[in-house]
What does this fold into?
Amino acid sequence: MKLWQYVVRRLLLLVPVFLGVTAITFALINASGDPCAIYYSERMTPAQQAEIELRYGCNEPALTRYGIYMNNLLHGDLGQSASSSAPVLEELALRFPATFELTLVAMFMAIVVALPLGRISATRKDTVPDHLARTFALSGVSIPIFWFALLLQLLMFTLDRMGFPALPISGRYSVTLIQTHPFLTQPDLQPTGFLLVDSLLLGDLTAFVDLVAHILLPAMAIAYISVAIITRMMRSSMLDVLQQDYVFTARSKGLPERTVIRRHAARNAMIPTVTVIGLSFGGLLTGAVLTESVFSWPGVGAWSTFAILARDNAVIMGFATTVSFVYVSANLIVDILYAYLDPRIRLE
Amino acid sequence: MGSDPKGLAGLQRSLTAGFMDRFRPRVREFTRGAHYFRKSPIAIAGLIIILTFIMMALFAPVLAPVPPGQKDPYEMVYNFGEEWREPRDGHPFGQTRLGMDVYYGVIWGSRLSMTIALEVVVAAVLIGALLGLVAGYYGGWVDEALMRVTDVIFGIPGLILAMAILVGLGATLESLVIALVVVSWPTYARLTRGVALSVKNNLYVEAARASGSRGPKILLRHIFPNTLSPLMVQSTLDIGTVVLVAAGLSFIGFSFTTPTTAEWGKMVQDGQRHFGSAPEDWWPVFYPGFFIFMFVLGFNMLGDGLRDVLDPRLRR
It folds into this structure.
C-alpha cells in the first residue's frame, strides 16, 4: 500500500469513529429525559426558552433531533453555556490557546526527559540507574496528578519560606505586569494567542521570562505521567532493538558503542515510542483538566471543572466532544507519521 | 478383575497418572512462575502494599472505630472548634476544615476505593472478555462491530468520557461505577479478541473441533484459558487506574458522595480549598493523596511484576 492510500484508508476509518462519538454525546445529552435540559438556565425568559426549543428541536422525535444536533455540530454550534450564555465554541476558542501552550510545553519537557532516561535505563539494565529510572516511571503512572500538583505548590511554598527563589504557583503571568504589558490581557494585541510566542514576537523579554516561570510548574505536573509512559516504552523498545542482528553487526564491525547506541539502536527504538508520544497527548489533556484549576491556569481544563461545579452541562458536553475530536485527529497524525517511519505498518 | 489386585492397582495407577499428567504442566508452570515471582522485588513489594490495603479495608472498624450514634460508617463526623488542627495524639493525620479526623477518613476511604475498584474491574472483565472471545473466535460482522465500538470509546480520553457519562446520568456512586466500566471494558475486549484470534487456528483447537466439540465448549475449554494471564495482568493494573480516575473525578467536583464521605479524592479536594491561602495546613491534602498514590502504586507494581512472571518471552 502506498502512503497516500494508507492515509485515505485511515481517514475513512475516522468517519464511523466521529459518528460513534457524537452518538454517545447525543445519547448522554438526552439521558436525563428532557433533551434540552442542559441548555436551559433559571434566568431565561419564556421567549429565550422558545428560541432554544426551536434551535435544538426539543419537541422533535429523537432521530430528527440527532439530525439537528449533527447539523449544529458541523456548523460549529456546540450549544450554549448556561452560566455565561455565550456559545460553547466561542468560550472554548478563547481558552484553548492557554491549554494548548501548556500541553505543548509539557510534551516537550516529557520528551526531553524521557528519551534519555529510557535509553540509559535500557543500556544499563538491572543496574542502579535502571532501578531508579523504573521506580521514577512507576511512580509517574501511579501518582494522582492533582495531588502531585499540590505537592509541587507545597514545595515552592516551603522554598519561599526558607528564603530560596521559588517558581510562581498560580496564574499564567504576574498580575503586576498587566499594566505595563497590555498584550497579556487583550486578545486583539496577541498575534497568536500563545503568549510565549507572542511575547517573543513583540520582543517583550520581561514578559517572556515571567511567562516561562509561570508555565514551568503546571507543565511539570502534567508532564510527569507522560515522562513515565514514554520512558517505559523507550526502555522496552530499546531492549528489543539491542537484541537485533544489525546492532550485533554494527558492534562487530568495530563501531564505538556510543555510535551503535545513537545511530543504530536509539533511532530504531524511537519508532514505537513515537506512537506512545502521540497517545500521551490524551493524557496531557486529561492532566490539564485535573490540574489547571489547581494552578489557576486560564485554559479549557479549569473552565470545564468550573462548569462541573456550576452544573453547566452544555459546556461539559461541548468540551467532551471537542476534546475527542482533537484527540482522534492527533492520533490520526501519529498513525500516519508511524506509517511513514515504518513502512511495514502499511502492508497490514 | 476383583480377583486380580495387581491389575486393579495398575489401573488405579494409570488413572492417577493420567490425572496427574493432565495437571503436571500446569503445576510445573505455576512452580516456575512462583519462582520468578519470588525473585522479583517489585512484585513482592506491590503484593505487600496491596495486602496492607486489604487488611486496612477489612479491619476498618477496628482501626478506626465508628463513633457511637454514627449510622453510616463512611460518613465522617464534624468536630466544631477543632478546625484545621494539626496531627497529634488521637488524630495522627490531623483534622479538616470541619474538624473531621483525616485518619478516620483515610482508613474508611480504603474500603470505599477497594469496593468501587473491584466492582468496576470484575464487571469490565466479564463484559470485555465475553465479547472479545466471541468476536475473536467467530469473526465476521460481530467482530467488525465490536472493533468499531471500541474504536469509538478509545476515541475519547477516559476521564473525559467518564465526565460526560456522569453529566448524562447524574453524579451518583452507581453512575460512577457505570462510567468506569464503560471506559474500561474495551481494553479487555481487545485483549481477549487478540488472544482468541491468535490461538483459534492452533492444532489443539482443530482437534477439539474435529472430535465434535462445539463453539461454546471450545471457547471455554481451549481458548479462554489462554487469556487468563493477560487478563490477570491487565485487571491488576486497572484496579489502580480505576481508583486514580475515580479520585480525579471526585477532585474536579463531581459529588457522587456527600461532602463528608470518607472518599480519598473528595478529601483532597476539600483540603485543597483551604490550601491555596494557607499551605502550611498540608495534612488534609497530603494524607488522602498519599494513600491514593500508594494504593495505585501497589497494584501497578504487582501488575508489572506479574507481567514479567506470566509472559514466558520476557523471562529469558
